Amino acid sequence: MKRNFKHIYGLLFPAILITVSGCKLTQPVEQRAQIKTPETFAGQADSTGVASLQWKTFFNDQHLVALIDTALQNNLDLKMAVQRIEMARTNIMIAHGAMLPSVTGDVSGGGRKFGDYTMDGVGNYDTNFSSNLDDDRRLPAPFLPDYFLGLRSSWEIDIWGKLKNQKKAAYTRFLASEKGRQAIVTGLIAEIARSYYELLALDTELDIIQKNIDLQESAVETIKIQKEAGRANELGVQQLTAQLLNTRSLEYEVRQQVVEIENNVNLLAGRFPQPVTRSSAMGQAVPQSISAGVPAQMLRRRPDIQQAQLELLANYSEQQAAQLALLPSLNITAFLGFNAFKSNLLFSSGSLAYSALGGLTAPLINRKALKAGQKRAEAASLEALYAYNKSVLTGFSEVSTSLKKLENTREIGELKRQEVEVLQQAVATSQDLFLTGYASYLEVITAQRGVLQEELNLTNVQKEQFLALVELYRALGGGWE
């Protein structure tokens, strides 16, 4: 009786140990808290942000709309992102397949010769002398063939949820890859819009430069006439001519910038270098007031933040699966087919063979690989948490910077506009005074140089306003729908 009790206890103890450890390991992994965000953007009231507008509505320049549409169809980065989504989709199929039984067809043949002084060798030799065997059942000697034709199956029963967590991680990463594609779309739209407005600004700069070239050519002709009349000297002619040459060289610098930006736009649009069709001027006005909405809208709309959050969830599931991998796994193996040691008897009814075996297997001594996988999953999960928090902080920083830039460039633009008007009047005054002998050519040069520089600065400020508007639209998660 005591021996039976000890035997039963010896069988129950491992089962009790597995149950206790299983209850502990199957508890959900404690996930660290995510960053807490403010309820509103600084200086912004609760309202619907500009990111809710579709990009075709947000940008009302038809040439820009057509350019963005072309880029969305042909951009190679976007095409590669679609293929990454397909790869992530196959990972779901792989994870799902791991939860189902695997069945394989098996056609095999082989054989072996047992040693004469082994149990198998002696047993086979002795068996052939049995009177119960007919000719078909006698063992070939000395080489014993083995033929099999049938099906083999193996199946890991997901008793702890390890495979389920792996499938959940694969599905979450698939969703994250879709968010990655959306992030490329928002970035692409913003990059095309930025380049387009830079081209419009460069076109405006070329007009300003050409206007100043005409003005400076007139000044050079005037001082040459005055030199012939003895009212100016060669130094004045040289100074004004040098200024004219400098302005002409500036024109070619701007034209080179146009070529570089056009080529970049064509690359984004997936086409070879060609002129970019665009409006003659910036036809879209920057709104006087811009609403950023509330942070909750940005967190839901920004694809990169959503992608980081999904990656965090995927790493959490993988961490849970790595923890459950320490528990025993229940595996069932089976086969069904024909098995014989004579090929001519393989398909006879007596050769039908089948087997089924189930058992729990668990590493007891060398668990370092599983422990390492668990620690790696924990580190990856923590890294994903930090990446998510960083993406949230980055989003708030970009929105705040864009809002302030819109506000400040609006003020700078108004002051620059007034400055340009004053300098344009100064140029006209300097020319009049020079003609009447009350101003020197140096004052004319200074006035012309000043108005050229400030007109270019005003154009740059207007461009920065549009770029800030585009960046705010992107930072709020607009454009991917």
Helix content: 55-70%
Mass-distribution shape? elongated
Query: What is the percentage of strand-forming residues?
Result: 5-15%
Tally the helices: what do you get? Answer: 11
Which residues sit in consecutive blocks of at least 5 with pLDDT less than 50?
5-13
Radius of gyration: 40 Å
Largest sheet: 4 strands, antiparallel
Quantity of strands, as a count:
4
CATH architecture of the largest domain: Up-down Bundle
Order of helices and strands, N to C?
Answer: HHHHEHEHHHHEEHH
User: What is the average per-residue confidence, as pLDDT, rounded to a whole number?
Assistant: 87
What would CATH call the homologous superfamily of the largest domain? Outer membrane efflux proteins (OEP)
What spatial order of strands do you see in the largest sheet? Answer: 1-2-3-4
What structural class do you assign from the helix and strand content? alpha+beta
User: Could you please say which CATH topology of the largest domain applies here?
Assistant: Outer membrane efflux proteins (OEP)
> Span between N and C termini?
75 Å
Number of domains: 2
Kindly provide the name of the CATH class of the largest domain. Mainly Alpha
